[in-house]
Write a structure and sequence with these properties.
The protein is mainly β. It has a domain at about 15-50 and about 80-160. The protein is about 15% helix and about 40% strand. The protein is built from three helices and eleven strands; from the N terminus they run αβααββββββββββ. The protein is elongated and about 125 Å long. The relative contact order is 0.21.
Length: about 180
């Protein structure tokens, strides 16, 4: 019984793939040099991406009883893309960036690009990182601020190695005089 369970576990683990960063080396190795080929690849996020936008409004005045009143309201909209979220290739950008789609809708895409001057770099999330509090990013025709930690998010793919061996044995009985 233990042997059967061990064999089943070994087969299950052997059939699983490993998530690796998507790089130009992976692209070249698997011939993913055109949009049709890349659209067949399942991508995953390497970390959680959080971006948000907020609106504040308020006013000040006095009540009928002469009390000073400050009224304020804040509306927040957060989008969270958890680690290992599945995503698909949408198109290429002007400089070879990968435009990745996480859901249906107009411009609900994020851009990933290799970092300059790094050979075999991963494809990292692109945003306007001039603000130290986080990057500015457009998603669904709205501008959001993303957390600084989201800048370390890159694209992963599953790499599975399959090996098939076909063997034919023949036992030679020898010859008799």
């Amino acid at each position: 019984m233990k042997t059967t369970l061990f064999i089943f576990a070994a087969i299950l683990l052997a059939s699983c793939g490993v998530k690796v960063p998507y790089t130009n080396e992976i692209r070249d190795e698997f011939g993913l040099d055109n949009e049709k080929a890349v659209k067949k690849v399942q991508f995953y996020t390497s970390a959680t991406v959080i971006f948000e936008r907020s609106k504040s409004s308020g006013n000040q005045g006095t009540s009928e009883s002469g009390v000073l009143v400050t009224n304020s309201s804040k509306e927040q909209d957060r989008i969270i893309i958890p680690i290992n979220t599945k995503c698909i290739f949408d198109s290429y950008g002007e400089d070879g960036e990968l435009i990745i789609r996480f859901e249906t809708g107009v411009n609900k895409t994020l851009t990933f690009m290799m970092r300059p001057n790094v050979q075999n770099s991963k494809f990292y999330l692109v945003a306007d990182w001039t603000n130290p509090k986080g990057g500015k990013i457009n998603y669904g025709n709205e501008e959001y601020t993303t957390t600084a930690s989201s800048g370390n998010t890159y694209l992963n793919v599953v790499l599975k190695k399959l090996q098939k061996t076909k063997r034919k044995d023949r036992i030679v009985k020898g010859m008799k005089v």
